[in-house]
């Protein structure tokens, strides 16, 4: 494979119609038609070359491979890490389940579970909608939700209880200890525990963490899991209080807790942690150019999340209407501002897709209509529906994967043009182009159809009418030649 600097100006492509040979189907030392690296395209190139000896393709390890071990240690293997992480989350879940049940009782736990689960599907659906441009894998979201609901909740319960008891013992003032624990200890502990999930995805799933929207989605899903467990605890405790005091109906503690936590502020914890996610998202966009930003922005987002959380928890100390004042003056406006920011970023991502993919259309990897269709959510949906109607659900899934790979390719090229291509740019670009090429027979007709349906009408200017004369077609227009009158009749003139 011809090596080239990771510059995306001239992607190679299958311009002569020869079949593309994926790197996983050719033997060592063989090459597909054409040249390989970005920046080396020329007339008649057919596709990237297959890596030969001394080059590294996706998932290969050969004599020329650098930075990887032929025989990795057992603790470096993927199944060991997945198993350890799953075991940690499972143990955390069992412990938090036992703690919450002990605190609320069996009936309180069941009531709290039934009420706390109500906002979860809505919040998850909202974050998935934000992530529709470049959808991340479900396993990342499952991990984040499980971390928030199990590990982060367990850390928060244990650390908050220990810190509050220590402060109460040191100051001999339990009421002050509770206030200090809610306004200082809880925000620091809880936001740090939730931010750990964002940090883990940022470090170990770097390909899936490419910008602000990814940070918002990962942080929001983590906080949704945390709020789910916390709501079980609060609602179950409120139900137990009603059992002791005889509270019923709207006047009960359970109803009041449900109104405040489920109806008014289901977005509170996601809103706090989203600030941390935005910091990590900006750091992802700044990777490779300014290393200081990779530390400063996540820490800044975490500090903002802690500050908002502290203000929210301390709103009850501002007087009888302090909670409603903080809710109306800070929570709702900030929620609206962040919602606008995320939606604007989502639209910006679509514009990036439409701006970056034409280079691959020129090289022959895509049809001319595909960049427009892939840059429109409506066109994407129409393409999937077209594939499902004509070829079944499997074809629709392939079109969805094609759309996701094309979006990742556009973002990869955009980062490279901005000066942060990453060390694996050429390998990753080749991998994504191979995934697109394998699905082209199914995806191209659907996307071309969607582009025709959604393309804006092109204004057509009619040709100008020919010049007409005063007395009909072709008659010369004014000014007319001067009229000379006939001379008078003279009968004597011969």
From TrEMBL:
Residues 1-11 have a biased composition (Pro residues). GO terms for molecular function: peptidase activity. InterPro entries: PrsW (IPR026898). Residues 1-68 are annotated as: Disordered. Residues 29-45, 54-65 have a biased composition (Gly residues). The chain crosses the membrane at residues 79-99, 111-130, 142-168, 180-204, 211-229, 267-288, 295-312, 324-344. Keywords: Membrane, Transmembrane, Transmembrane helix. This is RsiW-degrading membrane proteinase PrsW (M82 family). It comes from Streptomyces luteogriseus. The lineage of its organism: Bacteria, Bacillati, Actinomycetota, Actinomycetes, Kitasatosporales.
